[in-house]
Structure formats: C-alpha cells, structure tokens
Amino acid sequence: MMWLLLCTMALITFYNRYALMSPRLKLTLGDNAQLLLKYTAPAVLTGLWVPIVFTEHQQLNVDPTNPYLVAGLVAVVLSRFIKSPLLVVGLGMVVFFAASWWL
User: What per-residue confidence (pLDDT) applies to 13?
Assistant: First the structure.
C-alpha cells in the first residue's frame, strides 16, 4: 500500500511538472495564476525559517538571547544595506555562531 501511494504521488508530481514545462504541450497560465506564482518562493521560504527562528523545544522563543533570532534580525538589517545575498548569508552565519558561543 505504501509503494502504491509513493508511486502515485511521484506520478502526480511528474505530470504537474511535465505539463507546465514541456514545450510540446501548449498549456498557458492566466494572468492571475502567473501573478500568484510570484509569491510561491517567499511563502515557502517563510514557512521554512519562521519555525527555526521563533521556536525552541516546541515553545515560542523570542528571548533576546536566542541566537537564531539575533542572527535573523542582523541578516534582515544587513540585507537592507548590502545587495549581495551571499555576503549577507555569510555575515548572518558569522553572527549566529558568535551569538551561539557568546549568549
């Protein structure tokens, strides 16, 4: 049963990707759908970083000694002034490791 479910999910995923990316199929999305797809990456990334930054041991943690929160805030401020994403990520990691060690 598990293999059937896994193979079915794989086929559905493959079909969705193939239908939208294959040059042989003439499928076009409407303007509203294309507009909504622009919000997909920020929504997925927000769903990934919010639980990491704000929770610890399944509890809300907004303590100023939370190294994830400190590094996240520093990265947000740095991204306002520095236009290189790689540099912002690197500096955010440095701040995270320093905060983990120091706080």
Answer: 93
- CA dist., res. 25 & res. 18, Å (int): 9
pLDDT at site 10: 96
**Tokens of residue 8, six digits:** 């079915």
Could you tell me the residue ranges of all domains in the chain?
1-29, 39-102
What whole-number distance in Å separates Cα of residue 20 and Cα of residue 23?
Answer: 9
Count of beta carbons in the 10 Å neighbourhood of residue 1: 5
Amino acid at 71: A
> How far, in Å, CA of 75 to CA of 4, rounded?
44
Give dist(CA 8, CA 65) in Å, integer: 46
Calculate the alpha carbon distances from 38 to 13, 19, 33, 98 in Å: 20, 19, 9, 35
Average pLDDT over the chain, rounded to an integer? 92
